[in-house]
């Protein structure tokens, strides 16, 4: 990362990008936020509106609107521009529009001399993460997707309502595609350090109404529930992006489920997919390889196969 100031650019000044900027500003994640959007008028207005929050935040974060050619000295670029699924389309169905959006943009950003980290939120996030990695030529650890970070948060929230405990006392991960083939890694879910399976076995009457299959389904469908209710999902993913950005810029070494480019981990190569990883100043410091059950391994391989099948529709890079 260059310079002493922590600088982040957010490409896409719509609901996800603006919500992310708002969360980053209020959590004092960085010193400067550059907003880049399709509409100069709207982007300027978003930056102006956000700048009025500084007086009420814990630090003075500079927020301004700008253009792609001003991203050269950014430590982190968050890619939030893109369409929402809907009208019968899944996240995978957004691949064509995301490809058209980013195929030239990434090259333009690299031509500025950008040498930081890409954080991808655009859907289908696993494939767009892989696309950005290929187009940018950056090392794999410096291209990260939001992946199943938000799905993991949804899982913890749903479990916390049944147990009941604070969601932050529930530990575990959703892995695989940020989409229909995702799955909770039940064998590694713990509550206060105690395996969830042990808790359920010891208290069958207390938790007889808790169905793991139903929790997994509600986790997978949570985004659709929000989308159908209000037309977009942006607060949750903005919070997830902010947590990832904070770990990178502050060198926190936090473990989160993100889209990582695999190179042998879990027996997979040349694919972006949701896995737990340690996040630090250099990006992904290490992908954690959990000991999956046989059933979980099959679910992971199935999810990777679905992502690869959709990836195959892209032109050769």
TrEMBL record:
Q: Which residues form the active site?
A: 178 (proton acceptor)
Q: Where in the cell is it found?
A: Cytoplasm
Provide any one GO MF term from the record: L-lactate dehydrogenase (NAD+) activity
Q: What does this protein do?
A: Catalyzes the conversion of lactate to pyruvate.
The chain positions of domain Lactate/malate dehydrogenase C-terminal read 148-313
Q: Where does substrate bind?
A: 91, 123-126, 151-154, 233
A single Pfam family it belongs to is: Ldh_1_C
Q: What is this protein called?
A: L-lactate dehydrogenase
Quaternary arrangement and interactors, per the entry?
Homotetramer.
Q: Which InterPro entries match?
A: L-lactate/malate_DH, L-lactate_DH, Lactate/malate_DH_C, Lactate/malate_DH_N, Lactate_DH/Glyco_Ohase_4_C, NAD(P)-bd_dom_sf
Q: What is its main location?
A: cytoplasm
Q: Record's Gene Ontology CC terms?
A: cytoplasm
Query: Which superkingdom, per the lineage?
Result: Bacteria
Record-annotated residues binding beta-D-fructose 1,6-bisphosphate? 156, 171
Modulation of this protein's activity: Allosterically activated by fructose 1,6-bisphosphate (FBP).
The kind of enzyme this is, by top-level EC class, is: oxidoreductase
The UniProt family comment states:
Belongs to the LDH/MDH superfamily. LDH family.
Q: Where does NAD(+) bind?
A: 12-17, 42, 121-123, 146
The Lactate/malate dehydrogenase N-terminal domain extends over 7-145
């Amino acid at each position: 990362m260059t310079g002493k100031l922590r600088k982040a650019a957010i490409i896409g000044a719509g609901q996800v990008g603006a919500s992310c900027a708002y969360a980053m500003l209020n959590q004092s994640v960085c010193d400067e936020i550059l907003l880049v959007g399709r509409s100069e008028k709207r982007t300027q207005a978003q930056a102006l509106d956000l700048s009025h929050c500084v007086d009420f935040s814990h630090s003075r974060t500079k927020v301004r609107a700008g253009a792609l050619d001003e991203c050269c000295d950014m430590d982190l670029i968050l890619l939030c521009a893109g369409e929402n699924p809907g009208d019968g389309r899944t996240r995978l169905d957004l691949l064509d529009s995301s490809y058209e959006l980013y195929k030239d943009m990434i090259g333009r950003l690299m031509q500025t001399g950008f040498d930081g980290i890409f954080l991808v939120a655009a859907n289908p996030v696993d494939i767009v993460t892989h696309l950005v990695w290929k187009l940018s030529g950056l090392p794999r650890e410096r291209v990260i997707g939001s992946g199943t970070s938000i799905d993991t948060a949804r899982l913890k929230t749903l479990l916390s309502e049944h147990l009941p405990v604070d969601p932050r006392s529930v530990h575990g991960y959703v892995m695989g595609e940020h989409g229909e083939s995702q799955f909770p890694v039940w064998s590694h879910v713990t509550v206060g350090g105690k395996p969830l399976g042990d808790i359920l076995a010891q208290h069958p009457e207390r938790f007889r109404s808790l169905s793991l299959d139903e929790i997994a389904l509600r986790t997978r469908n949570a985004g659709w529930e929000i989308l159908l209710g209000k037309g977009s999902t942006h607060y949750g993913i903005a919070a997830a992006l902010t947590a990832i950005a904070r770990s990178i810029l502050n060198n926190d070494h936090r473990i989160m489920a993100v889209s990582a480019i695999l190179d042998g981990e879990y027996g997979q190569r040349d694919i972006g997919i949701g896995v737990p990883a340690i996040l630090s100043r250099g990006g992904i410091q290490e992908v954690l390889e959990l000991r999956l059950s046989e059933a979980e391994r099959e679910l992971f391989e199935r999810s990777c196969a679905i992502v690869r099948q959709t990836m195959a529709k892209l032109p050769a890079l």
